[in-house]
Structure prediction request, 260 residues.
Amino acid sequence: MKFWIKILKDFPWFLWSGWGSIASIALFLAFWDFGNQIYGDLILPSPYSVFGSLKTLFGDVEFTQNLLLTVKRGLYGTLFSLLFGTILGLTAGYFATASIVSRPIVTILVGIPPIAWIVLAMIWFGLGDTTVIFTVIVTALPIVFVGALQGSRTVENELKEMMDSFNIGFFQKTKDLYFPHLFSYLFPAWVSALGMGWKIVIMAELLSTHDGIGASLAVARSHLDTPLALALVAAMVLVLLFVEYVLLEPIKQEVESWRD
Prediction:
């Protein structure tokens, strides 16, 4: 509620920011249309045709089912990564030995390309949900782990000592020091993991399943249906923007209100 009150209070600033975003989108569409005029509909369809295909997609029951299936797979893998990546990262941050042991493992996991994980998962688990979810977990979890590790290792000792000198209780220290500090590291890691997981789930579906948005993208590629392919990409981007800016951004604004 406070978030929306802040928006109303600072409405002129939000309005100006909104006009800037609209101008940026308009410029992007102008360049897109210019590219269509140069390369033609096969290479780069016009925005009008792509948005027409996107409108048709959202009226298709099969597309809705595939979208929900993709969101479910991505949600399972990402939530697992957020939960266990945060727990393991905080644990490693508070124990020096665990931090030293875990760093090489995380470096190895980050260094392996996602496409390699997809191939290995297809060999281990076959074609289906398990392959997709596993690939999301193994690529997104290290991102969250590193964010949690850095957050827990960088809490300033001076602030802790100052709170201890005033005999401030554990819960108050958690609320005013630990949680805001950790959140400033965790939230960007969560958003990065969300974006990575969403891209990986599409890639894994394209290669290892017969349903979902990734599989629909593979069909569009085989039919050389560029407007449909771009419409599917636009739908994926819209879902990601909705989650990040409608669901996550208000939480971030509320938690980080102390910065203002």
Q: What stands out?
A: The mean pLDDT is 80. The chain is about 85% helix and 0% strand.
